[in-house]
Automatic annotation (TrEMBL):
Family as reported in the entry's similarity comment: Belongs to the damage-control phosphatase family. Sugar phosphate phosphatase III subfamily.
Protein name: Damage-control phosphatase ARMT1 family protein
Keyword Manganese (UniProt): yes
Needed co-factor(s): Mn(2+)
Metal-binding keyword on record: yes
Length: 386
């Protein structure tokens, strides 16, 4: 199998991107979480201790009681006592974010239970002026030919993945757009336009400025009759910084409804689709774990098996879909996603080391630039496995 040829990514090398995430990005995130709300000193101390542990110590276990609601052995006991950098990066990064929730008493009965530590940052982004400008552009889009509208909606959802609040905290964040380096948009279109309409599932990534174009795309699928129903999979509770939860979806629909012009109509339609059951929110616990989708539980696998098409959004979902491994960038996307129970489309901007499904010529050209093209967020892919 291809998987045996690619080692899992870890963060032990100080010159690696994963190492920079733990040592450069995470301190910024910890500071934001600590200062966004007037936290008691015990929470601030717990956040500081987590940062020290994850950058210079070994993995320790959180309070066992706080993990009791999670039904899978995600937080691997064999990694406890092991240096963080020597554990798989996907696991370590996920565990870091899980431990943030413990540090801020998210699961503990009391006044801080259920308070999203990233809510202030999410709310500020959603209310920002750039969102007003992006939503106003919908009015112009409505005047274009249908094919142009489709391409624009897909590109908006694709590049919306750059609006990742954890990515923005890192020094590797790019400012330009390098382009779509693997583009199977025509195959994506054919799956929806050239077949009878069915249920479409979308695995969401980030809230705010990424979730808005995702919702607009889903509204188009329902309004144009390209999907009979839509299932939007989100996180059941906060996970990575800007990951979308049910509350974030409702906030985004309200933001659309409160806008002017076409955006307002989209928001009203989406609210109606939710009421009618044509747009359904689901929040499986598996989405807040460090396992690849190949290891998804049977009940979630059955949900995707019933879908006419599943759209996977973003970098983390991509890593879980193909495996967080050092694949050769020409490794076939279709082969690495053969485990997924049904047709799948991946819309992703590149913000980590994982890269697959590229042509040899594209890889050669990107390597020749001398840029860290895998991690800057300047390049994107649209991959399809029908």
């Amino acid at each position: 199998m291809t998987e045996t040829l690619a080692p899992e990514i870890d963060s032990r090398d100080p010159a690696s991107f994963p190492w920079s995430v733990f040592h450069h990005r995470h301190p910024v995130l910890i500071e934001r979480v600590a200062n966004a709300l007037p936290r008691p000193s015990a929470q601030r101390d717990a956040l500081d201790a987590l940062l020290v542990e994850s950058t210079s110590g070994v993995v320790t276990a959180p309070d066992v009681e706080s993990l009791r609601h999670e039904p899978w052995p995600w937080w691997r006991p064999e990694y406890r006592g092991v240096p963080w950098g020597e554990t798989p990066f996907l696991w370590a990064e996920s565990y870091f974010y899980r431990r943030i929730l413990d540090a801020v008493d998210y699961f503990v009965p009391g006044p801080w239970r259920g308070i999203d530590p990233y809510a202030p940052t999410k709310a500020a982004e959603l209310a920002g002026h750039p969102v007003d400008e992006e939503l106003a552009a919908l009015d112009d889009l409505a005047t274009r030919p249908l094919d142009e509208q489709w391409d624009a909606l897909v590109r908006s959802s694709l590049w919306g993945n750059r609006a990742d609040l954890s990515f923005q905290a890192g020094p590797s964040a790019g400012t330009g757009v390098g382009g779509v380096i693997a583009d199977q948009t025509p195959a994506f279109r054919a799956l929806l336009h050239d077949r009878p309409a069915g249920a479409v599932h979308l695995i969401a990534d980030n809230a705010g400025r990424e979730l808005l174009p995702d919702l607009i795309l889903l509204d188009h699928l329902l309004d144009a009759g390209l999907a009979t129903s839509v299932v939007l999979h989100v996180k059941p509770h906060p996970y990575y910084v800007s990951d979308a939860t049910p509350a974030d979806v409702l906030a985004a629909i309200a933001r659309l409804g409160a806008a002017e012009g076409r955006a307002s109509a989209v928001g009203e339609r989406l609210a109606g689709f939710v009421r009618a059951g044509r747009l359904e929110l689901r929040a499986h616990e598996f989405f807040c774990g460090p396992l690849p989708y190949q290891a998804m539980p049977a009940d979630l696998r059955a949900q995707f098996a019933e879908a006419a098409l599943t759209i996977s959004k973003g970098d983390l979902n991509y890593r879980r879909l193909v495996g967080d491994r050092l694949w050769h960038p020409t490794a076939p996307f279709a082969e690495l996603t053969a485990h997924f129970p049904g047709p799948v489309v991946a819309l992703r901007t590149l913000k980590c080391d994982v890269a697959v499904g590229l042509s040899a010529a594209t890889v050669e050209a990107l390597d020749a630039t001398g840029k860290a093209w895998r991690t800057t967020g300047e390049y994107a892919v649209v991959h399809v496995r029908a």
